[in-house]
């Protein structure tokens, strides 16, 4: 199953195609100034064999180094089979587009990033027919940006850097700097950034802090995540009121009932249970007819 961080780490390049210019500069590889980027179909399936898809695929045009095809892969863990898949992708792209292919792998885990960055020789030990050399962006080489001015200079790069450092032990400074930088950013630019970060952090502990920081002033954020936070806040308040009624009436709440209440995000249903709790003889009675 494809995770939210997996999607965010490559989809950001679709949303901001020029981002690779900043990433390549951070990685120390000069591809030249970009003069154009085209999002290409990601389907690499041949006529008969097994379907193959790269995560994101871009055609990049430069002033000084011509054009190339950029394949971007999100990688969440080590996978020995990936080197063969990646080599296939690059060979296929070179054949299909007749342009030099480049593979960029984006990771949130340092060990995975360092694994992905190792060159892989393909062929007999005495004579490798091909050598796979991905560019890798991850917590081992992406900058930790905590200066709001630096974030504003390149929001896309700062967003990718934040996502790659999402699993860091103490991401507070990065997250707080981002919300500060976004406070004065136009809504149409801010909203996709907020959503990409939320998606990129997935279920990491940093995701909870990010949502709290976004929720500090929801008037700044009118993206889908802000609506989710509003709904969560209303649901949590409704659940607290329900527990308060049950407690005041001396009704014992089983673990199963407590889990059902706290796990409910439907405010209307929680309010219905609240009404029943006023007269119910047990916690289980509030769920009748459900």
Explain how this protein is built:
The protein has three domains: 4-137, no CATH class; 148-222, no CATH class; 228-287. It has twelve helices and seven strands. The chain has helices at residues 4-15, 19-26, 82-97, 110-116, 148-153, 155-164, 172-182, 187-201, 205-215, 224-248, 255-262, 267-277, and strands at 34-39, 56-62, 67-74, 101-106, 120-122, 130-132, 135-137. The strands form two sheets. Strands 1-2-3-4-7 form a five-stranded mixed beta sheet, sandwiched between helices.
Q: Any chance you could write out the topology, listing elements then pairs?
A:
Layout lengths: L3 H12 L3 H8 L7 E6 L16 E7 L4 E8 L7 H16 L3 E6 L3 H7 L3 E3 L7 E3 L2 E3 L10 H6 L1 H10 L7 H11 L4 H15 L3 H11 L8 H25 L6 H8 L4 H11 L13
Parallel strand pairs: 3-4, 4-7
Antiparallel strand pairs: 1-2, 2-3, 5-6
Helix pairs in contact: 1-6, 1-8, 6-8, 7-9, 8-9, 10-12
Which terms summarize this structure?
about 290 residues; alpha/beta; two-stranded antiparallel ribbon
């Amino acid at each position: 199953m494809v995770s939210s961080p997996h999607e965010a780490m490559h989809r950001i390049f679709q949303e901001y195609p020029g981002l690779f210019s900043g990433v390549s500069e951070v990685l120390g590889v000069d591809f030249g100034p970009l003069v154009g980027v085209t999002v290409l179909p990601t389907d690499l399936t041949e006529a008969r064999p097994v379907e193959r898809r790269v995560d994101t695929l871009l055609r990049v045009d430069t002033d000084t180094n011509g054009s190339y095809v950029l394949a971007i892969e999100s990688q969440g863990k080590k996978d020995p089979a990936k080197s063969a898949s990646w080599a296939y992708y690059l060979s296929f792209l070179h054949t299909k587009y007749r342009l030099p292919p480049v593979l960029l792998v984006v990771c949130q885990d340092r060990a995975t990033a360092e694994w992905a960055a190792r060159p892989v020789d393909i062929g007999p030990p005495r004579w490798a027919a091909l050598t796979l050399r991905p560019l890798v962006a991850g917590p081992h080489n992406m900058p930790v940006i905590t200066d709001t001015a630096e974030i504003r200079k390149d929001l896309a790069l700062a967003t990718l850097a934040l996502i790659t450092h999402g699993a860091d032990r103490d991401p507070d400074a990065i997250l707080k700097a981002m919300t500060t930088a976004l406070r004065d950013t136009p809504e149409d630019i801010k909203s996709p950034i907020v959503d990409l970060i939320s998606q990129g952090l997935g279920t990491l502990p940093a995701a909870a802090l990010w949502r709290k920081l976004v929720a500090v002033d929801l008037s700044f954020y009118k993206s889908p995540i802000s609506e989710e936070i509003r709904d969560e806040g209303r649901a949590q308040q409704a659940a607290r009121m329900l527990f308060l009624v049950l407690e005041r009436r001396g009704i014992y709440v089983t673990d199963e009932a407590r889990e059902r209440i706290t796990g409910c995000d439907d405010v209307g249903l929680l309010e219905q249970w609240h009404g029943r709790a006023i007269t119910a003889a047990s916690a289980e009675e509030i769920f009748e007819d459900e």
